[in-house]
Structures are given as structure tokens and as C-alpha cells.
Amino acid sequence: MTTLAEPRHAQPIERGLFSRAVDRLGGGLVQVFMILVALFWLIPTLGLLVVSLRGETDNNSSGWWTLFTKPAQLTFDNYSNLLASGFGSSFWNTVLITVPATLLVIGIAAMAAYAFAWIEFPGRDAVFLVVIALLVVPVQIALIPIAKLYGFLGIFGSILGVVLFHVAFGLPFAIFLLRNFFVGIPRELLEAARMDGAPEWRIFATVVFPLAKPAIASLGIFQFLWVWNDLLVALVFADTENQPMTKALQSQMRQFGTNVDILAPGAFLSLIIPLVLFFAFQRYFVQGMLAGSVK
């Protein structure tokens, strides 16, 4: 009887070991696949970097992958010529546009979203529906009216005008995103703070805002990328003195060709900042995107 019972006990153990081996192998294959996808996704970025470090003659005569057999082609002359052409001022104009537009949208949207989520006032739902309706308004439909308004106010062509336009069109989505996150915060936390005598601004600053870091990080990444990579608004509202990098790069396009020695390093500089920002805050980005989706 003892000899017959041993195989029956051994079968589940063998199946358990087999299942664990399959799970580990499957997980390893998934990781290898994701690494390959990430490397494949980074190939254009690597190619752009290599092109920006090669001379115009080398880029016209051969592909960027030939650098691996001819490393002597590397040079920083393109970046020196880029800075000498005044591209540095366009870089700082981009920073002066993107940073205020991102911070203002986060600050205003967070306060508005808190009001829509936890403060009772007449017409709250109707006003929120109006905010949601603004999400479907295309940017192009407001270019001419806003341009006339800016001309009347005397801010057409300035950095301030570009910032205000981005803030206005970034607020509806920002309020919608943060409001959906705020309503998922347990009501007991806010009620406990109110019972302790905390005013609404203190509840927002010390309870709600710290809990909303993932959603705020996601919103910040969205807004930063949208403003940093914008070309349409810059073409309409920014003059040559206040133009960001996207407009400066667009002005380097020739009628019958491209100024590769200027466009490649400029495009890489405009690409690397958002890329670093995304990788630095990707954990908060994923948490913010999942926030409010599961109750």
C-alpha cells in the first residue's frame, strides 16, 4: 500500500514544478520580448543622435549606421554651429513657454477639480458639463478670434500670449483628469480634517494634493509634452524673437532640401528633454493613468 501511494503524491509535485518552470520561462520570454521592443523603439532616436554627430558630407554620402565602421566621423561641429546660429535663445524661449504653461495648468486645474469633486455649490454639475464640452473644441477654431483679441490687448507675438493659449486649452482635460482622481479619495479623510477644524484650502493642500501626486505627475507629463512639441500655436502667436525650438527648426527647412547639419542636432535636443522627463516619471505616469479606473 505504501509503494502504491507514493506515485500519487509525486504527481502533484511534478505538475507543480512543471507549472512553475513554464511560468518562469514564459515570464522570461515576455521580458526578452519587451526589451527587444524597447530597443527597436529607440533605433530612430539612436539614428538621430548619430546623424547629429556626423558632418553634412558624411550624412549625404552614406547612412548613419556606417558610423560603427568609421567612428572617426564623430564631430560636435554641428552642435557648435547650432548654438552659433541663435538656437540657444529658441531653447530658452521653449522653456519659458513650457514651464509656466505646465505649472499654471496643474495649479488651476487642481483647485478647480477639488471644487468640482468635494465642494457643494449651485450649478456645479452644469459647470462641469461645460468644462467637459470644451474638450471637443478644436484648437484651430480659436486661432483667428484669439489672434484678434491678442492684437487688441497688445500681446500678439509675445511669450505671454503663447502661454495663455496653452493654459486655456489645457485646462479642460486637466480638470477632467484630476476631478476623476479626487472623487476616488475616501470621504472619511476629508470629514476627519473638517472635524479637526481645517479649512478647505488646508484640506486641499495637506490631504488631497499629496495623495494626487500620481495623477498630477501624469498631467504634468501630458501638458509638458504637448506644449514642448507644439508647432501650430507657435507659428501663429510667436514672432521671430520669441519663437520656440519647433518654429526655429521649421524655419531651417529649405525649398529643395533640408539643412541636416542644423536640423539633426536641433531635433535631438528638442527630443531628449521630454524623453528624459518621461523615463524619470514613468512610474507616476502609469499610476496616474490607472487612477480612478478601478473602484
From TrEMBL:
Keywords recorded for this protein, A-Z: Cell membrane, Membrane, Transmembrane, Transmembrane helix, Transport
Segments passing through the bilayer: 21-43, 91-119, 126-147, 153-182, 203-228, 262-281
Membrane topology listed for this record: Multi-pass membrane protein
Location of the ABC transmembrane type-1 domain: 91-281
Superkingdom of source: Bacteria
Keyword Membrane belongs to the record: yes
PANTHER family found in the cross-reference section: ABC TRANSPORTER PERMEASE PROTEIN MG189-RELATED-RELATED, OSMOPROTECTIVE COMPOUNDS UPTAKE PERMEASE PROTEIN GGTD
Similarity comment text for this entry: Belongs to the binding-protein-dependent transport system permease family.
Protein's recorded name: Sugar ABC transporter permease
Protein source organism: Microbispora siamensis
